[in-house]
Amino acid sequence: MTQGPPPSPAIARCGGGISPEKPLVTRRFKPSLAYTSNFRHRLTCDKAVEVVGAKPTDNKLYMADHVLSEDATQEDVFTTVGAPAVDALVAGYNGSVIVYGQVGSGKTYTMHVECVVSFVEIHNEKIWDLLDVRAVDPKNIREDTRLNQVFVQDLVQVPVSSAADAIDWLEKGMKARKVTAPTARSVASSRGHGVFSIKLRQQLSDSSCRKTVLHCVDLAGSDKNLALYPSTAAKDLKEVATYIYSLVDVEAI
């Protein structure tokens, strides 16, 4: 960022908030290139930026709720803009994150992230892909020795572009859960573990790629009293015993 003379007192005193009824504005500056403009800028406080022209009369002051410098990372953008939007969503408020600017200003870079979801059910030590409508057999577990990771072979991973898309696939997967049975405490009790996964792929400023995943796990009920299960069929009791045993590791945490 190009340094300039000290800001005027009027600029330095900026910092008042904007009415919550108005859209919140965050200005992010792309690293400048020498041949792209005759203008330079300086941050006067965390809510204002002054664009300095060739002549003093060309100078312009722009206000915002937040200003992110050229050194700001994608994590800084999420902390400033994305996280509050997500918090508001969880609190029951609709919201939009909109990027606006000239061609080549970095709008797509700021918003670029790939998101996919998957949904499996683990039942009787087998893995069923709830988003694979053509599957008739359970999926296999494989190990990538190069990355030291295990994965589900041929797992369906669906690209999503919004929370609504993700929820839609979650609901489709819930309907595909095949194994439910009544107990003394529930009319329909799943005897398998459901794992809904949200995977993000982010392109970072240093051209590297970051991959992260959030697993949302719906475990089968942890009741160990077999008297709660009306069915006494041998295969049903074996099924119950299998998933109860699978919860032992969870209880040890």
Automatic annotation (TrEMBL):
One Pfam family named in its UniProt record: Kinesin
Record-level GO BP terms: microtubule-based movement
Domain Kinesin motor as annotated: residue spans: 22-253
Listed SUPFAM superfamilies: P-loop containing nucleoside triphosphate hydrolases
GO cellular component: kinesin complex; microtubule
Record has Nucleotide-binding as a keyword: yes
An example Gene Ontology molecular-function term: ATP hydrolysis activity
Domain of life: Eukaryota
Residues holding ATP: 101-108
Xref: SMART domains: KISc
InterPro entries recorded: Kinesin-like_fam, Kinesin_motor_dom, Kinesin_motor_dom_sf, P-loop_NTPase
Keywords per UniProt: ATP-binding, Motor protein, Nucleotide-binding
Family: Belongs to the TRAFAC class myosin-kinesin ATPase superfamily. Kinesin family.
Name used for this protein in its record: Kinesin motor domain-containing protein
Organism taxonomic ancestry: Eukaryota, Sar, Stramenopiles, Oomycota, Saprolegniomycetes
